[in-house]
Amino acid sequence: KLTSLALQPVITPELVQGRVHLKCSYSPPSSEPPVQYRVLWSRLSSPGKREQVHQETTPQPISYVEMDGANLRLGDTVFCTVTAFRRGSPEQQSLPEDSKGFYAGIKFVPESLEIAEDGKEHVLTVLSTVPIACPGQEDSCKITLQLSTEDLGRQVPGPPDIALSACQVDLQPEPCSGSSCAAATVTVTAVTDFAQDGNRVSRVSAQPVAPRDLLWRAYTPRDVKVTVRDLPTGNCYSFTDPHIITFDGWRYDSDKIGTFVLCRSDSRAFEVHARQWDCGGHRSATACNCGVAAR
């Protein structure tokens, strides 16, 4: 047998005549006589099981297979396995070498998020690992993804636990680099819900909107799991002839008449005003709450 040749097969995506293909490249041995290659393409059909989709014998150090939407679909994890043998003596062959699995489709980065109810925005990148192809409409070529959120494990309907900065993102073609052939970003924020409801799990889903390309039509990308860590909520009070308790627990009384700022955020558009009027009459100078305005 030929020894292990360190062929190191690698899968990369490529557009060939406007169609999405995967290319398997491997390092040819420098030794003579000439060598041929048997390339076996397979996809992950279930965890730990692979299904063969194409096989060819070639003298070239590359092999192509098309993402046709039938044998190979978006959402598949694809492998190429390469064996080298001497021309004329196929019994003398090297050990088969596997590429790493190539996931073809939409990826979220990171694949899961853990965030807190602290108002911070977290960037979620949506990328396509395969080129976006739009034959005949290059000027407006894009894949639009509709984004949605869902709370998992909630028994009764309620307000969502997370908010996205956009409901749709557009993936526009760009040269493939690393694992990305098109990318867009969206921010995720935990909704501050003033409820002690424990840590909750939500998910972000993406769905291609009316794609013209057959390849994208029956494809639903994987979800992203977002865990929201519950944080205790601060409370402040102003009640009756105003007794005031601040966020940090200070207590005092206010008997002034007028309109006052109860609280105002330094970082966002949020404030609460209280209006106090005279409710003591001639006997005592007492003010009571009579109105509130919140922004």
From TrEMBL:
GO terms for molecular function: signaling receptor binding. The keyword Disulfide bond applies. Residues 234-295 form the VWFD domain. GO terms for cellular component: cell surface; extracellular region. InterPro entries: Dev_Signal_Modulators (IPR050969), Ig_VWDE (IPR057885), VWF_type-D (IPR001846). Keywords: Disulfide bond, Signal. The keyword Cell membrane does not apply. Transmembrane segments: none annotated. It comes from the Eukaryota. This is VWDE protein. The lineage of its organism: Eukaryota, Metazoa, Chordata, Craniata, Vertebrata.
